[in-house]
Amino acid sequence: MNKEYKVPTWEPGVKQLAPNIYAYIQAKATWYWSNAGFIVGNDYVVVVDSLATVGLTRKFSDEIREITDKPIRYLINTHHHGDHIYGNHVFTEATIISHDYCRREAIEQGIRDPGLMNTIFPEFDFRGIAVTPADITFDKQLTLYMDEGEVRLLHFGPGHTAGDIIVYLPEEGIIFAGDFIFLYSTPLGMEGSFDGWLRNLDAMANLGAQTYVPGHGPVCGAEGLNLCRDYLVFVQREAKKRFDRGMTVDEAANDIDLGQFKQWPNHERILANVERLWREFRGEDPTTSKLDIAELFLRMDTMAKAREL
Ligand SMILES: [Zn+2]
Asked: How far apart (Å, rounded) are the C-alpha atoms in residues 25 and 266?
């Protein structure tokens, strides 16, 4: 067993990455425990992602206020998943920016059934969420010129979802990677494209940043990006063998031995990943070939509980 994959502990909270750039890191990388960040300029603050609940986002907002009292002018959403947007409305003054697809999906998916959510994820309080989509959207690239520096928002095609962006700070060599990097929890690829995700990781690596803020897990360098890539390549390869043998999604998901990735929590996500891969192997477009996510959450929950027995 390769020790690189072993889940370490890490320090949660606000982490200063450069004089005016901060990551906000959770102690866990599991379901709905997502990271965020913020950039403090001369006149205003830019926030990267809100969190999964109103309470978690208020706590994040309070942490920003410990550092600065400047107005929060922009809130960037890396993608439409609830753990990155459900707290958007807590930042009442911010103009929200996302990819076109992120806005569309935020509106279409809305907030999931709170009863279902509370059953599957009882440690979170999902009450009081009012899904608030972006005010400004873009497709390939949008640059904020902030003081003397640039905040580049980049989209390299479908990956973790069909509308993820990264936030690249070229002067500091820092990337807020959103959910392109899951570190020490199982990557979740139910909505995008595995080939596309790998292309996104390559494009990101080619930017040459030294520091990545993952959507889930501790701040890392290129080694963190590579561990996430290892999982994607492994699952794609193992799934393809079973697809070619004519297995069903459930048969394949149960048959794949995760090996060293068994150490990462939420390995029931193999089910969602195989569901997506089956569609990808059939050549379906991720923007139109959608899964029933509520149903998938229940199946993953059943699988997770069965594995705990
Ligand atoms: Zn996500």
From this structure: 18
